C-alpha cells in the first residue's frame, strides 16, 4: 500500500467522518447525532453477527463436502471488516460497513477484490507461492526445507538469501489411513477344471 493511500485511509476518512458528525450535530442536535451513531453500531453488530455466522456455516458446509472455501472466506473477511467499520463512529464508515453486510453489495466487493488481486498477480506486484513441509518438518523455503522455484523465497528464510532447490522426494513424516481395503492375492495358477 502506498503512502498516499495510507494517508487517505487514516487521515482523510476520519476527518470526513468528523466533519459529517459535526454537520449532523448542527442540523439535528448533539444527542440525536450520538443516538444515531450508537444505533448504527448496535444494528451493525447484530447484522455482522448474523451474516458472520451464516458465512461460517457456508465455510463449514463447503469443507464438509470436500471443497475449498474460497469465496466463503472472502465473504467472512468482508463481514469482519464491515463489523469493525460499523463500530467506528462516523457516517462514512457506517455506510461502508452496512454495504459490506448486504449480500448483493458484498458479492460486488468480493468480485472487485478478486479482480484487483488477479491484476496484482499479473502485474507482478504480488507473488503467490505454494509449498509444503520439508523433510525436517519446516516450511519449504525456510531454514529447514528447500527453496521456492524461480528464485522466490518463502517460509521463514531471509529475503534474498540463497535457497536450496525444492525437495523432490520428501519423506512422509505422518500419515493416516482413511479407508483400508483388503483384496485376495491373485494366484498365477489357472483355475482347476
Describe this structure in words.
It is a single chain. With 193 residues, the chain is mostly helical. The chain has a domain of 87 residues. Helix content is 58%, strand content 0%. The protein is built from 5 helices and no strands. Helix 3 packs across helix 5. Pfam families: FxsA. This is Membrane protein FxsA. Keywords: Membrane, Transmembrane, Transmembrane helix. InterPro entries: FxsA. It comes from Rubricoccus marinus.
Q: Give the class from helix and strand content and strand pairing.
A: mainly alpha
Query: How are helices and strands ordered from N to C?
Result: HHHHH
> What would you report as the Rg, rounded to the nearest angstrom?
26 Å
Number of helical segments with 4 or more residues: 5
What fraction of residues sit in β-strands? Answer: under 5%
Binned, the helix content reads 55-70%
The biggest beta sheet, please?
Answer: none
Mean pLDDT over the residues: 75
As residue ranges, the low-confidence spans are: 140-159
Tell me the total number of β-strands.
Answer: 0
N-end to C-end Cα span: 80 Å
Overall, the morphology is elongated
Amino acid at each position: 500500500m502506498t503512502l498516499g493511500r495510507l494517508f487517505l485511509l487514516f487521515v482523510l476518512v476520519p476527518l470526513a467522518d468528523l466533519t459529517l458528525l459535526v454537520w449532523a450535530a448542527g442540523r439535528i442536535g448533539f444527542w440525536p447525532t450520538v443516538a444515531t451513531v450508537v444505533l448504527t453500531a448496535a444494528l451493525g453488530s447484530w447484522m455482522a453477527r448474523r451474516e458472520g455466522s451464516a458465512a461460517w456455516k457456508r465455510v463449514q458446509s463447503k469443507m464438509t463436502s470436500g471443497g475449498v472455501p474460497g469465496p466463503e472466506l472472502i465473504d467472512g473477511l468482508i463481514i469482519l471488516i464491515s463489523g469493525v467499520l460499523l463500530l467506528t463512529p462516523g457516517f462514512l464508515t457506517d455506510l461502508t460497513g452496512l454495504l459490506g453486510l448486504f449480500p448483493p453489495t458484498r458479492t460486488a466487493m468480493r468480485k472487485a477484490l478478486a479482480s484487483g488481486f488477479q491484476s496484482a498477480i499479473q502485474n507482478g506486484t504480488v507473488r503467490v507461492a505454494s509449498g509444503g513441509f520439508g523433510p525436517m518438518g519446516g516450511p519449504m523455503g525456510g531454514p529447514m526445507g528447500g527453496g521456492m522455484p524461480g528464485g522466490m523465497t518463502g517460509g521463514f528464510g531471509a529475503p534474498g538469501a540463497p535457497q536450496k532447490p525444492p525437495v523432490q522426494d520428501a519423506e512422509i513424516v505422518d500419515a493416516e489411513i482413511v479407508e483400508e481395503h483388503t483384496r485376495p492375492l491373485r494366484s498365477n495358477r489357472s483355475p482347476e477344471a
